[in-house]
Specification:
Elements (H helix, E strand, L loop, with lengths): L4 E5 L5 E3 L2 H7 L5 E6 L6 E4 L1 H12 L6 H13 L1 E4 L5 E3 L2 H6 L5 E6 L4 E5 H34 L1
Antiparallel strand pairs: 1-7, 2-6, 3-4, 3-5, 4-8, 7-8
Length: 155
Amino acid sequence: MFLSTFEKQLDAKRRIVVPQDFRAAAAGSFDGVFCFPSIEADCLEGGGKALFDLYEGMIEELPFGDPLRSSLEFVVYGGMSQLAFDSAGRITLPEKLCEEFGIDDWVVVVGLKDRFQIWSRERYQAHRDAQRASARAGLAQLRQQQRAAKVGGAS
């Protein structure tokens, strides 16, 4: 699993040291990670073979020619890069993706269980604040629904 949040500095060649726990989580037939533009946010998304298989399974469930399937294939497969670990556990981020998402010197790597995201520091901070507000409001609503269900179920 990819867990926690790390700030990392890119070197002059756009390399980042991938945390050891993340390298272990990505372990598989390919010694590296798959990375592509996130569908959900303005960042990079990555993971191991399990993440690739998850997207592949989801895409394969849709009939050939379905507009959603075409969109997912375009974003996921068309935007995907296989980034191999070097001997120091680093990956080199593709220049075009760094430019697209404002990634330059410092990045934030966020573990999301079966995947991780790589953010520019500035975009991460704004997204983090919005996600916290959304989680706070969503949790309050969920708790309210649970209380209502208990009260309604007790009658």
